[in-house]
Amino acid sequence: TQRVRYLFREFYDRQEFVRFDSDLGKFVAVTEF
């Protein structure tokens, strides 16, 4: 079975600050605000 992993990454001012990981099923903060 082929698994598809979906990653959504959001950037602000060329800095990644949040990503969505389908394996976890939730958004994960990358950098502190």
UniProtKB/TrEMBL annotation:
Top-level division of the source organism's lineage: Eukaryota
Pfam family, one: MHC_II_beta
Domain MHC class II beta chain N-terminal, residue spans: 1-32
Alphabetized UniProt keyword annotations: Glycoprotein
Signal sequence segment: none
Listed transmembrane segments: none
An annotated GO BP: immune response
InterPro entries: MHC_I/II-like_Ag-recog (IPR011162), MHC_II_a/b_N (IPR014745), MHC_II_b_N (IPR000353)
GO cellular component terms attached to this protein's record: MHC class II protein complex
The name this protein goes by in its record: MHC class II antigen beta chain
